[in-house]
Design a protein that fits this description.
The protein is built from 3 helices and 3 strands; from the N terminus they run E-H-H-E-E-H. It is of the alpha+beta class. It has one domain: Multidrug-efflux Transporter Regulator, Chain: A, Domain 2 (Orthogonal Bundle), CATH 1.10.1660. The chain has a 3-stranded antiparallel sheet with strand order 1-3-2. Strand 2 and strand 3 form a beta hairpin. Helix 1 packs across helix 2. The longest helix is centred in the C-terminal third of the chain and has 17 residues.
Length: 68
Amino acid sequence: MERGEIVITRRTLTMKEASQWLGISYHLLAEKARKGDIPHSRIGSRVLFRAESLENWLNQQEELKLSR
């Protein structure tokens, strides 16, 4: 990398991208975000999801199901 060059790897997903990645509907994801059931960040009018946070959340959901 040359001096002054910036490389940014996008680490966030939009609502549409996150719903596709999770395999759930856009509306279900929006409802879960509104209720605070899924980790997300709101920046202005945009709702963003960190891929790492979604993976951790999925793992927690699986563990909860298995421990019942």
